[in-house]
Specification:
heterodimer, A: alpha/beta, 6-stranded mixed sheet, B: 609 residues, Beta-Lactamase, Rossmann fold, 8-stranded mixed sheet, 3-stranded antiparallel sheet, 55% helix, Signal_recog_particl_SRP54_hlx (chain B), GTPase activity (chain B), SRP54_N_sf (chain B)
Chain lengths: 255, 609
């Protein structure tokens, strides 16, 4: 009875819509579809990966670095509990800009925020506290390992910069030393992590980092990795400028 | 301040004490601000809450533009010259608190009066079981004195029935007061009756009035030994006093049948009915308005209020409890989610339910992802480099699977090339040492010394039964150091958390031997008990340790995970209480059934409808 009721309706509709009316309806539908596709395409392009993430352990100096890059002034900061994002004009003459996103480094928050922003990452700045590095080397390596084996990040391969912060303090380790220590630690970590008991729903083991036979080296990664020394506080104390030249140059390159 | 309480989802209570200061905070979720007030712990300032609210309002109104337009840049570049306003508000708050002092007395008086009516209500509920006890006495006993008391109590029971029927309608406050006054008078009358009924009892027995248990038979003669006035001469005990009828007790009992424990359940049924009826009228009113409200809620930006969130949170709380999360933890979780979302502005096309669910999901993932990941293999490698064995201690209540999971973990370690010494410190349970010996034999058969360069991968260190566990552990560790074993796994006896001497013994074992890792083994089937177990274990370890920073539980092993399909709430309860990660998950009884926790999968199973 239902089908029978529909048929005369459809026939009536078709009769009404004959001629120019049908054509106009078709054109309208087509226009809507095309607009929709264009909109999706534009949005996809716009939001795809224009972000530079600031990652690192707690107290590495990410929020101060963020403030310095954006405003040039020193600011007293607290432990971040949420992300902050702003657009940063990379250089004076070009008009390119990137979105700087400062993520919290606290252990219970970092992975959550990384999940949210990793797809949009065009580049990652991993901030390391050069003064406390010797005590924290295991935690730094663990976080770096978690960032590097992430599926989305391996796929997109954003450029990675390891910023060795707090160089204004005399006890700060050099970038070369930090690189060597991290390579050694990541070498051990990839063995222990792949040997860990498999996850509950056995979603495959963690991805292999670097080449199997040889010792781990940052050049084995699919992304470009650089090491840079910087100081967000600046050697002249709070009033002076920060030493961020290496960082700024790299940002120009990346944008 | 920010590091401990805010990131961990414990936002139920909004004050935090640190050394000599107390800090109270308030969240503004609309603009993502935190307002903190710090004051000395010894002072009790009554105006703190009001002050923080005033500061919040003023600050928000004054700088609203900067937040809305410029976002993060506004925060960075804007100067917030709030000091004068703050001093003014502080002065106002201090003055107002001083003025309010005399009025405080009055509110206390009012509360006293309201206390009285509450007390009346409580005592009326207590009346009903007492009455029922009297009725039960009638069934078993053959005394006449109690029969006399039963008649008036039955009459008053009859009076109670219409008032109980009255309970089923909605009670206004006046009716409650009226009812209370009636009960009050009735109680006075009953007290007079009660004084009558003990008199016939007193005539029959000299000395103490025997206690009548309402769950057993009330044949007092069986328990009454005051008649036989013997002075220690056993043969003088008269045989003819033994009455076989009395000894057997209730004559109506069928021989050989086990009776159930009878208990009062009628009070609860009445309470439920009252609650249901009060909730029904409110549901009817919501029907029409709900339609437009739903459409309004979908479009446009509106901020979340407590009333919007409460029904959703209730439902989520019940859902969590149904999934085996401990009740108090579910309540606290929902509280903290509510605090986090209050005042937040929702985007278009997001319902309250979806926002709350999203927030709850994030909170759960955050709880399950630990503060510090425990990587056992990495730490064992470190200990290897320092030429000392890595000591792991397993503790837990009885029957959770300590020995089984110890064997699984030693298998995993052997697979990764580390040699293991198992210390049998369970010197109480029969067969514990033999169990571990069998496991050792099996593991050695699976990994013979020939395939590992000639050294035995697993060895058992035991000293039999009945010895001191802490001593055995110490000897095992020094033996391992001498022989060059990489890991020592210490198996302890299962013990209930309430058993103080055993908890002391465990704390002593851990304090004396200073293991590298203390693992608490808990089964996934446990429900609200998990909270109690973990709290008491941690407390015992903290109390009996001599050091400044006591060794507490470092990690959790969740066992019997294959027995629950998706009621995975125990994982949440345990990690919430201790904030320590779940290191291993046991999913069976063979050596390969050892897994690590996947936080997202567990949360997905938990939130699944």
């Amino acid at each position: 009875a239902m089908a029978g009721g529909l048929e005369p309706d459809l026939a009536a509709l078709r009769r009404e819509m004959s001629g120019p009316a049908a054509l106009s309806v078709l054109i309208a539908l087509l226009a809507v579809a095309v607009t929709f596709l264009i909109w999706r395409f534009v949005q996809g392009r716009r939001s795809s990966r224009k972000a530079v993430l600031l990652l690192g352990l707690c107290d590495a100096g990410k929020t101060l670095l963020f403030a310095r890059l954006l405003s040039g002034r020193y600011r007293d900061t607290q432990t971040s509990i949420t992300d902050s994002s702003a657009t940063y004009r990379v250089s004076r003459d070009k008009s390119t800009s990137v979105t700087l996103i400062d993520l919290p480094g606290h252990e219970s928050l970092r992975l959550q925020f990384l999940e949210r922003f990793k797809a949009a990452a065009r580049a990652i700045v991993f901030v390391v506290d050069s003064v406390a590095f010797q005590q924290e080397v295991k935690d730094v390596a663990e976080f770096l390992y978690q960032v590097l084996v992430d599926g989305t990040i391996l796929k997109n391969a954003p450029a990675l910069l390891i910023a060795c912060n707090k160089q204004d303090v005399t006890m700060a380790k050099s970038a070369k030393l930090i690189q060597q220590q991290l390579e050694k630690e990541l070498n051990t970590l990839r063995v222990t992590r792949s040997a860990a008991p498999t996850s509950l729903d056995s979603s495959g083991g963690p991805a292999q980092l670097g080449k199997k036979g040889k010792d781990f080296d940052f050049s084995q990664l699919p992304m470009k990795v650089e090491f840079v020394e910087c100081s967000a506080r600046g050697s002249k104390g709070e009033e002076g400028d920060a030493d961020l030249e290496g960082l700024e140059k790299w940002l120009v390159k990346v944008a | 301040l920010l590091t401990p309480p805010l990131p961990q989802e414990r936002g139920g209570n909004n004050s935090f004490t640190h050394e000599a200061l107390t800090l109270k905070y308030k969240l503004d979720n609309q603009f993502e601000l935190v307002f903190v007030v710090g004051f000395q712990k010894i002072l009790t300032l009554t105006y703190v809450d009001k002050l923080i609210d005033d500061v919040h309002k003023e600050f928000r109104d004054k700088y609203r533009n900067e937040f809305q337009q410029k976002g993060a840049l506004g925060l960075l570049n804007g100067t917030f010259d709030f000091k004068d306003d703050f001093m003014r508000l502080l002065r106002d708050a201090e003055e107002s608190s001083r003025v309010r002092a005399p009025t405080v007395m009055k509110t206390f008086e009012q509360s006293l009066k309201s206390q009285k009516t509450v007390k009346c209500m409580i005592e009326t509920r207590g009346e009903k079981p007492k009455e029922k006890v009297k009725n039960k006495k009638n069934k078993g006993s053959k005394k006449e004195g109690t029969e006399a008391a039963a008649a008036p109590s039955k009459a008053s029971g009859g009076d109670k029935q219409p008032s109980a029927a009255g309970d089923k309608e909605e009670l206004t406050k006046d009716e409650i007061l009226q009812k209370n006054r009636e009960e009050f008078f009735r109680r006075h009358m009953k007290a007079g009756e009660k004084s009558r009924s003990p008199k016939p009892d007193a005539q029959k027995e000299k000395g103490k009035k025997p206690r009548v248990w309402d769950l057993g038979n009330s044949n007092a003669k069986v328990l009454d030994y005051s008649n036989s006035a013997t002075n220690g001469s056993a043969e003088a005990c008269p045989m003819e006093e033994f009455d076989p009828d009395m000894a057997l007790g209730d004559k109506n009992r069928e021989p050989g049948r086990l009776y159930d424990l009878e208990y009062e359940s009628e009070d609860e049924a009445e309470e439920e009915k009252v609650v249901q009826n009060t909730s029904k009228p409110s549901a009817k009113k919501g029907g029409l308005g709900g339609m437009f409200g739903m459409l309004k809620g979908l479009v446009g930006a509106k901020s979340l209020t407590r009333e919007d969130m409460d029904p959703v949170l209730e439902k989520m709380k019940d859902h969590l409890i149904a999934k085996n999360v401990a009740a108090e933890i579910a309540v606290q979780l929902c509280e903290s989610v509510a605090k986090k979302l209050e005042g937040k502005v929702m985007g278009t096309f997001t319902t309250v339910t979806s926002t709350v669910k999203q927030a709850l999901q994030e909170a759960l993932v955050q709880i399950l992802q630990p503060q510090r990941r425990v990587d056992v293999l990495r730490d064992v490698m470190d200990a290897q480099r320092h030429r000392r064995p890595y000591v792991v201690t397993f503790c837990g209540v009885n029957g959770v699977g300590k020995s089984t999971n110890l064997a699984k973990i030693s298998f995993w370690l052997i697979e990764n090339g580390f040699s293991v010494l198992i210390a049998a410190c369970d010197t109480f349970r029969a067969g514990a040492v033999e169990q571990l010996r069998t496991h050792t034999r099996r593991l050695n058969a699976l990994h013979p010394p020939e395939s590992h360069g000639g050294r035995t991968m697993v060895q058992l260190y035991e000293k039999g039964y009945g010895k001191d566990a802490a001593g055995i552990a110490m000897e095992a560790i020094s033996y391992a150091r001498n022989q060059g074993f990489d890991v020592v796994l210490v198996d302890t006896a299962g013990r209930m958390q309430d058993n103080a001497p055993l908890m002391t013994a465990l704390a002593k074992l851990i304090a004396v031997n200073a293991p590298d890792l203390v693992l608490f083994v808990g089964e996934a089937l446990v429900g609200n008990e998990a909270v109690d177990q973990l709290v008491k274990f941690n407390k015992a370890l903290a109390d009996h340790s001599m050091a400044q920073t006591p060794r507490l539980i470092d990690g959790i092993v969740l066992t019997k995970f294959d027995t629950i399909d998706d009621k995975v709430g125990a994982a949440i309860s345990m990690t919430y209480i201790t904030s320590k990660p779940i290191v291993f998950v046991g999913t069976g009884q063979t050596y390969c059934d050892l897994r690590s926790l996947n936080a997202k999968a567990v949360v997905a199973a938990l939130m699944k409808a």
